[in-house]
Structures are given as structure tokens and as C-alpha cells.
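Researcher: I'd like a structural prediction for the single chain below. Treat it as a standalone chain; there are no partners to consider.
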Amino acid sequence: MTRITTDPEPGQPAPGKNRILNASFGAVTALVVIAVVAAGWFGSGWARALFADKPIAVARDSALTGAQQAGINLNTVDSANIEGSFENMKSSITGDQMNQDLQSTIDGLTDQMQQTGASSKAELIQGTLTELNTDDGTAKALVVVAVTTTWPDRFDKVKVTMRLGVEDVDGVWKASSVEPVGGRIPLENGRIPAVGADPAPTGQEPAPDGSAGGQ
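Model: Treating it as a single chain, here is the predicted structure.
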């Protein structure tokens, strides 16, 4: 059997070459489609992280920072600078009810603190955000602080847990509500030696100075 072949007309590619070109074109097309889909996927992910996730993360951090600072300020009062302490409290709260409650506290504590010389200082133990509404600019947080109250002769340290509602006020998150959670848990207490008082004995005999005996 004799196979008869004919050469392609001038200007026409060979059949085998057509198949190769078609296969190559199909592969390139598939790669382009994959690249476009991938670009859309990663591009949308990048856009979401930039325009949605990042602002939410910033709001979450700011709300938590505001709640923690409010928890510290509302539990810190320096008897030597009562007005400054109350100004710090006012800077951390918002709303008529909160301001009224604070004013009542100020009226009741000022004379007492001046008479007793008591001061309190709060230190953050832990804080966590439990709710966040970026549309309304509101959030809720749990804040735990250690509050040390000091009198001239003694000190008392307790753990205080609070549930705070906070609001975004011109870019600053402030407490709009404060609710204690549980009781105050004792941590430490003790006496403060009076100024000029002799230190407690150590139980050791003083070393001889050599001025007596042996002469």
C-alpha cells in the first residue's frame, strides 16, 4: 500500500503545526484566565484588608484602649491633687448620667479625702473587648485593675473588675457606663511605718566596735 501525501499550498501551515499552535494558544489562554482569577481573588482580599478589616482593627484597639484608660482614671485619686484627679476622670467619661454620677462622687469624697489623706492608684491587670459596633461607634469591655488605697499609716490593695460601655467621641473612646462585676477581691494590705520611726529589729546582735575591753 502506497501512502500519497501532498505538500501544503504556499502560505498555509502544516497540519501538525496547526495542532501545536492550537495547543499552545489554549495553554496560554488557560494561564491568562487563572492569572485574572487569582488577581481578582487576591486583589479583593487585599482591598478587604485595607478598607474593611484594618479600620475595624483600629477601632477595636482604640475602643479597648479607651476602656482601659477609663478604668484606670476612675479608680485613681491623689489626695495631694484632687482637682487634677477628677479632671482625669472627666476626660474619660461621656453622657449626662456619667457626669452626674461623677459629680456626686466628687462632692462626697473631696472632704473625706482631704481629712484622711487617702489616695488610690489603679494599675491595669487585664482588659478585653466583648462587643464592637463601628456603625454606632459603641463598644463594651471588661477591665480588671488592681487598686491600691494608701492612708498615712496603712495601705490596702484589691482587684476590681468592671464592665464598661464606651463611645467614640470625636475620635476618643470614653466610658458611657460603668458596672462593677462581682466584689472587690483583696490582694494585699499592711502597715506603713511612720516617718522617722526606727526600723523593725532584725534579730542580729550589733558587731563589737572594739572601743571597750582589751585595753
